[in-house]
Structures are given as C-alpha cells and as structure tokens.
Please model this.
Amino acid sequence: MSIFLISMGLAFLAILVLLWQVISLKKQAIQTEQVLAEQEKRLIHHEEHLAKTLKIMHDLANNVHGQSELLEQTTSKVKNLEGQSSELVQLLKQNFLSR
Model:
C-alpha cells in the first residue's frame, strides 16, 4: 500500500511539473507573440517611411532634371544674346567708322 501511495504521489508530482511547464510555455508563447506584433508594427512603420523617402527622392530627381533642362535653355539663350551683342557691337563699330 505504501508503494502505491508513493507511486501516486510521484505521479501527482509529475503532473504538477508538467502543468507548470505547460503554463510556462504558454506565457512564453504569449510574450513571443507580443514581441512579433511589435516588430511587425515597426516593420510597417519603416516600410511607410521608406516609401515616403523614395517618393521625396523621386520628386527631387524630377526637380533636378527640370532645373537641368532650364539651365540648358538659359545657357543657350545667353549664348544667342552674346552672339547678337557681338554682332551689334560690330555694326556699331562699322557705323561709327563709316561716319
């Protein structure tokens, strides 16, 4: 009878240890889920931030391209004006020398 009681006590103790392990693992699983949810929120935030940054970079690239084209047009107009100015100076010289 005492062996039976000892066996029952050990079985009860084993069940308690198993229950403690199950509860411990359940708490750990909940904590892991919370960490994963937090990391997913951070990931979403970083993805949104990256998308905004890429849009800003794209807009800046478009602006730089537009400014480059405008600079090329302005340079061309300045060269034309320089040419017209030199022609005007030559005409004025010819007019002044012919008098």
User: Anything to note?
Assistant: The chain has a mean pLDDT of 95. The two ends are 145 Å apart (CA to CA).
